[in-house]
Design goal:
With 393 residues, the chain is α/β, with parallel strands linked by helices. The chain has 2 domains: 122 residues, FAD/NAD(P)-binding domain; 219 residues, D-Amino Acid Oxidase, Chain A, domain 2. Helix content is 26%, strand content 27%. The protein contains 11 helices and 17 strands. A hairpin with a 2-residue loop joins strand 11 and strand 12. Helix 1 packs parallel to helix 7. The two termini are 43 Å apart. 35% of the residues are buried. Bound molecules: flavin-adenine dinucleotide. Flavin-adenine dinucleotide binds next to helix 1, strand 3, strand 10, strand 13 and strand 17.
Length: 393
């Protein structure tokens, strides 16, 4: 039976989705552009869907100048928020260290040059000899004093002395310096408070229909019935569901979703040094299975892929503030496109082997993590969500 029509209201701007994208949009509309009539529509609590699954890492490293410019602008904005809020968002800038066992890194350097464009000469520093001391002295987590650009280190003794946790076969480290982590839940909460204070409102409901006329007429299912919202402008910030929302307007938005997972656990055995930057292993890898295990895996259609060569990208970083022992590990190896699920906590969706796979894989980057292969951490959380991407990433 159709639910009763509850009420109708007007707004200048209706934002669909109260994840970080919707909240940040509302924040700047209110703060920077002085808009008061802003509604944030979402049946879920704010920041509770994909935005609750994030690794909370940021970086200005992209192999494309427009993406570098775009992320620099985003980081400028985050730093402004951090400055205004006495760093309540816990912004830290230890950087991203991208590591490889290769000695020829011409292609990686070419990507860096493309990304940093005309600033490349100023921003790319290749270390060896006397500049090593300058690099060591520049290591910090302070977002206000860490340098910009990238340090490229091919001197293995410098790698050993500055990043002792890394595997000894690593030959090159590319340390992106305008990069680090922050507490995105705090950022969302803080922005939402400002939106409310500026007159913006939340509508706890699910958008099910849009009619287009001179403006937009939205049908929103709320716990009390269907609400009509008339808006001059709508913003589609529905994350993995953005394609569905666009389809309500007859527009095909080419966004694909890939489910990716992470784990976080208490590193009671101190495998990861607390000062370590976010470390990403760029190299593809083969697991070193015994013959018996390899045979067993190869016979299982769901696990046979573990006997082949696997992509790079496994990553690790210490998580939490002073006194924390938590670490986060991830590896976005899934290349299958899927429909977004409504329930991210659904354990069916999570790959039960993921924690063991990612710990094994990350121990080729940080060998001391191997302690958790045979004797897994007592407490850990395993979670996942969608990477929503255009076809060309
Ligand atoms: C495992 C993992 C790790 C990640 N790590 C990082 C990282 O380290 N750094 C980084 O920058 N990014 C990271 N990301 C990506 C980042 O989390 C996302 O880009 C970001 O959270 C997307 O935010 P969003 O607001 O677009 O989407 P969401 O947070 O998904 O919000 C969309 C909202 O829209 C709502 N919605 C959908 N349909 C409707 C409807 N019909 N009516 C009303 N509301 C609707 C949903 O309820 C949801 O709350 C990671 C992602 C994953 C999955």
């Amino acid at each position: 039976m159709p639910r009763p029509m509850k009420r109708s209201r007007r707004a200048e701007i209706a934002i669909v989705g109260a994840g970080i994208a919707g909240i940040a949009t509302a924040y700047y509309l209110c703060k920077q552009y002085g808009r008061k009539s802003v509604l944030l529509i979402d049946s879920r609590p704010p920041m509770s869907f994909t935005s609750a699954q994030s690794g909370d890492n940021y970086r200005n490293w992209w192999p494309h100048p427009q993406m570098v410019e775009f992320s620099n602008r985003s980081i400028d904005l985050m730093e402004t928020v951090a400055r205004e809020a006495a760093n309540a968002v816990n912004l830290r800038r230890r950087g991203y260290v991208l590591v490889t066992r290769r000695t020829n890194i011409d292609d990686l350097l070419a990507d860096l040059h493309t990304g940093y464009g005309e600033d490349a000469g100023r921003l790319i520093r290749i270390h060896g000899g006397p500049s090593a001391a300058a690099y060591s002295a520049s290591l910090t987590s302070n977002w206000q004093s860490a340098p910009d650009g990238v340090d490229v280190i091919t001197d293995t003794s410098l790698i050993r002395s500055t990043l002792p946790a890394l595997a000894e076969d690593i030959r090159c480290v590319i340390h992106i310096r305008r990069a680090g982590d922050f507490n995105s839940q705090q950022l969302g909460t803080l922005m939402l408070e400002r939106v409310r204070a500026a007159g913006g409102k939340r509508v706890p409901g699910h958008l099910v229909g849009i009619l287009r006329g001179s403006g937009f007429e939205l049908d929103v299912l709320t716990p009390d019935g269907t609400e009509k919202i008339f808006a001059d402008v709508i913003v589609n910030a529905a994350g993995p569901f953005a394609r569905k929302i666009a389809l309500l307007l007859g527009v095909d938005l080419p966004i694909q979703n890939r489910f990716q997972q992470k784990i976080a656990f208490e590193d009671a055995r101190g495998a990861v040094t607390r000062e370590m930057p976010f470390a990403v292993d760029l190299d593809s890898m083969d697991f070193d299975w015994t013959d018996d295990v390899r045979e067993l895996l190869a016979d299982d259609p769901n696990l046979a892929w573990l006997t082949g060569t696997l992509p790079g990208g496994r990553h690790c970083r210490p998580d939490g503030g002073a006194g924390s022992k938590w670490v986060k590990l991830g590896w976005a190896y899934n290349s299958d496109v899927s429909e977004p699920q409504d329930d991210l906590a659904n354990e069916e969706k999570l790959d039960k082997q993921f924690p063991e796979i990612v710990i094994r894989a990350a121990s080729s980057l940080i060998p001391s993590l191997a302690t958790y292969i045979e004797s897994p951490p007592k407490r850990f959380s395993h979670y996942g969500g969608c990477y929503s991407m255009t076809e060309e990433n």
